[in-house]
Every structure is written in C-alpha cells, then in structure tokens.
Amino acid sequence: MSSSRPRLAIVGLLIATLVAACGSGGATxxxxxxxxxxxxxxxxxxxxxxxxxxxxxxxxxYIPSVQFAQFYLAxxxxxxxxxxxxxxxxxxxxxxxxxxxxxxxxxxxxxxxT
Length: 114
Hints:
Elements: H1 4-22, H2 30-33, H3 37-47, E1 54-60, H4 69-77, H5 79-82, E2 85-91, H6 94-103, E3 108-109
Parallel strand pairs: 1-2, 1-3
C-alpha cells in the first residue's frame, strides 16, 4: 500500500505540470492554478469563466478503478473546470496508451510497465 503513495505524488506532479503548461496562454494566475486542488479554487474564479477551457485527454488504465480515484474526484468536484481545463478521461489498456500519447491522440497516459 505504501508503494502507491509515490505513484500518486508523481501523478499529482505530472498533472500540476500539465495544468501549468496548458494555462500559459497569458493569464497571470496560471502558475498557481496547478499548485494544488485547495489553492486553485481561490485563483480560478477570476481566470477560467471568460476563457475557453483547454481540452485535455487523459488515458487511464483498462478499467475504472480506485487507483484512479484522484482523477474521478477532481472531475466530479469541478477542480479541472476551475483551472480552465476540459478534461476527458479515457480507459484504455496500457499497450494502447503509450502509442496514443506518442501520436498525440491523448495528452497524458497513466500506465505501468507490463
């Protein structure tokens, strides 16, 4: 169970990096929008409502599972929308995720080495 914490931290950093990179279109609050879910709520109201959200396709593992709970909860709580993102979660097998990321068909793929 403790081995999943480093993975969650890496996934969180990856998403924060993507949010910061996607939000660099001139908004002054974009660097702090990816800082954390708790701080993005105080920054987002002035940045997101008037702008068109940035589409982001995220490929997750084969079946919806508790290991991806942070993605589902963030979507349900509206954190992505508050950060100016229109996130689409897609479940794919790992063998398909890697090529799809390489082809640009999805923006982020969360997979393992199997």
